[in-house]
Amino acid sequence: MATINKNYDKLAAGYLFPEIGKRRDAFLKSNPHLKLGDIMKLGVGDTSEPLTHTIIKGLHLGVDKLASKDTYTGYGTEQGDKRLRQALADRYGKRGVKLEFEEIFVSDGAKPDSANIQSIFSKDSVVAVQDPAYPVYVDSNVIAGRTKAFVNGKYEGLVYMPCTVDKGFFPDLPNKKVDLIYLCSPNNPTGAVATKDQLRVFIDYARLTQAVIIFDAAYSAYISDPELPRSIYEVEGAKECAIEISSFSKDAGFTGVRLGWTVVPKTIITAGEDPNKLNSLWNRRQTTMFNGASNIVQEGGLAAMLEIGQRECQGVVDYYMENARIIKWTLEKMGFKVFGGLNAPYLWVKLPNGMKSWEFFDKLLSEAHVLCTPGVGFGPSGEGYVRFSAFGHREDIEKAAKSIRDNLRL
Ligand code: PLP
Predict the structure, then answer these.
(1) 284-343 pLDDT, tens per residue?
(2) What value does the CA radius of gyration of the chain take, rounded to a whole number of Å?
(3) For ligand 1, atom 2, which residue shows the shortest CA distance?
């Protein structure tokens, strides 16, 4: 008799994005003069601009190679094309971070890696997450059985690290001993970027207690301030305690193409094990449960890593950051307190007069026909905030900004 994994039943109902879709559809139903296309999206973190010329050439090369007997390849190595792993290692090298290519595992994206990485740690690991946070860190640990019930917006057994305005949206150390710590910088949803000093506090803690930090750097390309670290390994000691997960989604536009990577240094210390152990466990996990990223896509990734590819990707990042500037300027002019959006594609907006996240979401939708993302959907400390995203075509961003300016009644 098959029984199900009951942990799925613990997942909080009304996952954020389906709930947003439900409210949008209900609004359209009660306003039949409006069409779906009349609703302007400033909520989602999906890219909108086409792939760059060099990347398209790389993807074509990948396809063409499959058309001939001499260059056809079937299954690749589960860890990824060595050329791509080396190119990534070289890029870290340019920022002073020495990594061997065997420490880098290419994958089909940062989200699956963030969800799967917990499987190499023991079930009784105590997990700490930033609050608010990108939901997969929490949900993957709920499914793995590391939490109890969901009560008052929190899972029992999970350690929440509030990221509040007074702390610049970066958390203090957890208030009890934990084993795994998820950090994300530049942060989704707050747009805050951790400084080296802020990361150092966590690295020191992790080294002292043999905890492991899982660092999500999916938005690192959005950092333009040279003082801010793009990788946790730019801070000394991180290679002893941190796994880094990253992606081609947000700078190369691979949200639909799918390509990411995870760095598991051979020097991470875990209780009672050789330093090499985590690297070999992740290798085992990937070789057992993953058959490698698409060969076509990896050619596209290699093209993105070329100097010209990087320059083109930077152009796309700059485009989105100009969108961020337009939204930030519009909202600030209206009197909103706006955070983020300087080294990150997200703006984290404090709502006036104690307004709740979903209350503002409904108001913005009905008055300006614009969608945002309610902050509380990322965790209880997100209440009273909403997230705006800079991913979108310029003309849509400008139209949405104008509609907010003209129609939102504060
Ligand atoms: N990590 C963070 C913090 C994200 O916000 C997202 C997507 O929005 C991802 C990872 C997903 O990355 P990928 O497309 O590589 O799975």
Answers:
(1) 999 999 999 999 999 999 999 999 999 999 999 999 999 999 999 999 999 999 999 999
(2) 21
(3) 218
Q: What's the full length of the chain, in residues?
A: 410
β partners of residue 234: none
Instruction: State in Å: Cα 142 to ligand 1 middle.
Output: 19
Q: How far apart are CA 241 and CA 85, in angstroms?
A: 21
> Measured on CA atoms in the order 218, 221, 226, 230, is the torsion positive or negative?
positive
- Domain limits of the chain? 12-50+310-407, 54-308
Asked whether 184 lines ligand 1 (CB < 6 A), one says yes
**Residue among 190, 249, 294, 373 whose CB has most ligand 1 atoms within 8 A, to mutate:** 249
Instruction: Please give the Cα distance from 101 to 83 (Å, whole number).
Output: 9
Are residues 323 and 394 in contact, defined by beta-carbon separation less than 8 angstroms? yes
Distance 407 CA to ligand 1 centre (A): 32
Bond prior to 171 in cis (omega within 30° of 0): no
Ligand 1 in contact with 218 (CB < 6 A)? yes
Q: What is the pLDDT of residues 38-86, one digit of tens each?
A: 999 998 899 999 999 999 999 999 999 999 999 999 999 999 999 999 9
Is the predicted pLDDT of residue 105 greater than 90, yes or no?
A: yes
What class does CATH assign to 54-308?
alpha beta
| CATH fold group of domain 12-50+310-407 | Aspartate Aminotransferase, domain 1 (3.90.1150)
Q: Could you read off the pLDDT of 57-70 as tens digits, one per residue?
A: 999 999 999 999 99
Which helix (H) or strand (E) segment is 116 a member of?
A: helix 110-116
